[in-house]
Structures are given as structure tokens and as C-alpha cells.
Design goal:
With 405 residues, this protein is an alpha+beta fold. It has 2 domains: 184 residues, no CATH class; 178 residues, no CATH class. 56% of the residues lie in helices and 18% in strands. The chain contains 13 helices and 12 strands. The strands form 2 sheets. It has a 6-stranded mixed beta barrel with strand order 4-5-10-7-9-8. A hairpin with a 2-residue loop joins strand 4 and strand 5. Helix 2 packs antiparallel against helix 12, helix 3 crosses helix 8 and helix 9 packs across helix 11. The protein is elongated and about 105 Å long. 37% of the residues are buried.
Length: 405
């Protein structure tokens, strides 16, 4: 019997009792659908993390002001005031493979244009910040190093702030008030949208960090230094060199903790991806239990089918069918049953992923690899759980089978 004929006979046998066939496939359908959906959620989370890291820029190292221990009470990160402008200059001058650098000093501010006002974040930075973060200015231009040196009253607006203050008008060249100080708008940044935490990345403005220090916040220290490196491969060496340099500059003894924190987006991405991967495997493992239950259901139904068709098996053997033919027939029925359930499960998983994405606004990604694995796995379930009933059918005594009522 050729494979096409085997499949045709298997489909005809399954069609004899459609309701039982559908109910048997339900376990496979639900199991495959659950696996596809959980993997899609995990891959969507991973893709979202990668997109968030890319939005920060390429090959970035971030040096944060650290925490401090006061009278036994440990303050939060950013509590120290030891990270200063000279530290940023020293990193750029003395650490190899550092290409750009931007001191960061921010403050929450009220911005006003005519009768429109908006509460936002003024991020003080250097003129290199747009290159470090790969965040281009789409209207107008970025402020210059001279503006930083002079603590100029100039700014570049995020898309949200520009929309709130100016609507459809062109903001470039216009004057606004920031904490009652006049500022000239030089440009508008490319819209980036929300980050993975749901925060609007465009709800901010960039001004020279010296302006924030001298005119808005009245401080001399920095909250962060953002460092651009020449390549991703150079980042570990750059981190080590920055740590050694800052410890020397801050006069820290070998027994003292750092009063700063060094992080890179790649480290955060790896940690987030590792967590996401563990959760994906955990959820997929739980969902796979449905496949196991579906496989047991297939074995149960196939055993019932062997009992019901004992006389049919005897007739087939009597007219020349071999044990291999009978085994192939019942094994093909189990394989067709699980494969059809697998394909329906894939469709269910895709639909469920789309619903989750649209209703719950979770990022989901259904990859080709997960679909292929689901098909192979469901077919494997049919073969594994269909083998015993098929083998049992093939070993029936033809004479006893013909006598069976």
C-alpha cells in the first residue's frame, strides 16, 4: 500500500466518527495553541527589550551617581554628589576607545508657550547626545558645543512637548519659557514612542547640561555620564578603565565601595532576556502538558478503534494484508489525527497571540521556527502514542479476529 493510499484510508476511517475525532484532537489543538501563544509572548518580550536597548543607542556605557551610606542608612542610587564635569572630561581624555561623551543633569520643569503650558523633563546633555543615543533631530538642528560652554538658553524638544506647546505650528526658532527663563527652540527630535515600561520617551526636552546646572537646578554635580565606545567588543575594557579612573579621581581606598555605578544596556538586555527565556520555557513546559494529555487521548481512542475493527483487521489479513500493512494503517491514522490537531492548534495559537497583542497590548512574535517545531512535535506525539495501538492491531491472530463479534 503506497503512502497516498494509506493516508486516504486513514482519513476515511477517521471520518466515520467525526465527533469522536474532533474531541480526540482537542487535546492536541489546545496544547499546540498554548505552546505557540506562550512562545510568541516570550519572543515578543525579547524583541521589545532589544528595541528598547536599540533606542538607547549603540555601544553605550552609562555611569550613574551611586548610593551613599549615612549613619547606617543606605540612600538610593543618585544620592552622591561626587560625579562631576571633570570626571566626564577625564574619561574622554584618558580612557581608550571612548569616542563621545555626554554629561547628564536633568530637572523637572514647567514650559510655557503663549497660553499653552506643559510639565516635562529637561534633560541636560552635551551636543553629542543625539549621536550617542542614535536619536536624530528631524526639524531644525542640535545646539552646539559653544552653547554648552556658554550655558545658553537653547533647547531641542521631544515630539510630545512640541505637539503640546505648538500643535501643528513649526516650533523651530520660537521662544518659550522654561522656569520663567526664555529659551529658543532650535529643533525637534524624531518621535520614539513609549518604552517597554510604557513611559513616553518623547515627553522631554534636551538643553545644555551646563544650563541645567547653573540656571535651573543650581548644582555642580552630575546625575549620569553617558559614554559612547568605538565598538561593542571594546566595552568590557572601557568599563574596567572607567572604574579604575573614577576610583582614583574620587580617592577611594581599596576597601571602600564605588560611589558610582557603571551599567551598559547590553548587560540589562542579557539579564532581561535570560529572565524572559526562563519564563518562556516554564510556560511552554506547562502548556506542553496539554500535548501529553492529547497524546494519551489519541492512544485511548486508537485502542478503542482496534477493538471495534477487530473483524475488519482479520478480513484484511485474510485477503493478503501483512502485519506491516496493518501497523502502517493504524499508525497513519494516529499521525493524521495529531497532524490535523497540530495545524488547527497553530491557527488557534496565532489567533490567540493576535488577540493578546490587540486587547492587552502585549508584544507577541510568532516565529517560523516555533510553528515548525509545533508541527514536528504534534506529529511526534501521534507516532509515539499511536505506535502501541498499531502494533497491537498488527499482532492480532487473523482467525481469532475473523471470529470476533
Amino acid at each position: 500500500m503506497n503512502p497516498r493510499e494509506v493516508i486516504r484510508v486513514a482519513l476515511r476511517a477517521l471520518a466515520r466518527n467525526k465527533l469522536r475525532t474532533v474531541l480526540t484532537m482537542l487535546g492536541i489543538i489546545i496544547g499546540v495553541g498554548a505552546v505557540i501563544c506562550t512562545v510568541a509572548i516570550g519572543q515578543g518580550a525579547s524583541a521589545q527589550v532589544q528595541a528598547q536597548i536599540q533606542s538607547l543607542g549603540d555601544n553605550i556605557i552609562m555611569v550613574f551617581a551611586g548610593s551613599v551610606n549615612t549613619s547606617g542608612v543606605r540612600m538610593g542610587n543618585g544620592a552622591t554628589k561626587t560625579l562631576v564635569n571633570d570626571d566626564a572630561d577625564a574619561i574622554l581624555r584618558y580612557v581608550p576607545n571612548v569616542t563621545m561623551i555626554s554629561p547628564i543633569a536633568g530637572a523637572s520643569v514647567q514650559v510655557v508657550n503663549g497660553n499653552q503650558n506643559w510639565f516635562t523633563r529637561a534633560n541636560g546633555a552635551s551636543a553629542d547626545i543625539t549621536q550617542i543615543r542614535s536619536w536624530p533631530v528631524v526639524q531644525g538642528s542640535m545646539f552646539s558645543d559653544r552653547d554648552v560652554d556658554m550655558a545658553g538658553n537653547v533647547c531641542v524638544l521631544g515630539n510630545t512637548v512640541a505637539q503640546q506647546l505648538f500643535g501643528d505650528q513649526d516650533p523651530v526658532g520660537q521662544m518659550i519659557r522654561v522656569q520663567n527663563l526664555p529659551f529658543r527652540v532650535l529643533g525637534v527630535l524624531l518621535a520614539k514612542g513609549q518604552n517597554s515600561n510604557g513611559q513616553d520617551q518623547d515627553d522631554m526636552m534636551i538643553v545644555p547640561y551646563t544650563t541645567v546646572q547653573k540656571k535651573i537646578s543650581g548644582i555642580s554635580w552630575l546625575q549620569m555620564i553617558m559614554v559612547g565606545t568605538s565598538s561593542q567588543q571594546a566595552m568590557p575594557q572601557v568599563q574596567t578603565a572607567i572604574e579604575a579612573l573614577l576610583r582614583q579621581r574620587h580617592h577611594l581606598r581599596p576597601t571602600e565601595d564605588n560611589d558610582f555605578i557603571i551599567r551598559s544596556p547590553n548587560e540589562m538586555a542579557q539579564a532581561a532576556e535570560a529572565t524572559s527565556l526562563v519564563m518562556t520555557f516554564l510556560l511552554a513546559g506547562i502548556a506542553s502538558i496539554s500535548l501529553l494529555v492529547g497524546g494519551i487521548g489519541i492512544m485511548n481512542i486508537m485502542l478503542v478503534s482496534v477493538t471495534e475493527r477487530t473483524r475488519e483487521i482479520g478480513v484484511r489479513m485474510a485477503v493478503g494484508a501483512t502485519e506491516e500493512d496493518v501497523q502502517a494503517q493504524f499508525l497513519s491514522e494516529a499521525l493524521v489525527l495529531s497532524s490535523l490537531g497540530g495545524m488547527a492548534g497553530i491557527a488557534l495559537g496565532m489567533v490567540a497571540s493576535a488577540i493578546i497583542s490587540n486587547v492587552l497590548h502585549w508584544s507577541t512574535v510568532v516565529s517560523l521556527l516555533s510553528v515548525v517545531v509545533a508541527v514536528v512535535f504534534s506529529a511526534g506525539v501521534g507516532i509515539v502514542f499511536g505506535y502501541y495501538p498499531a502494533r497491537r492491531a498488527a499482532r492480532l491472530d487473523p482467525i481469532e479476529a475473523l471470529r470476533y463479534e
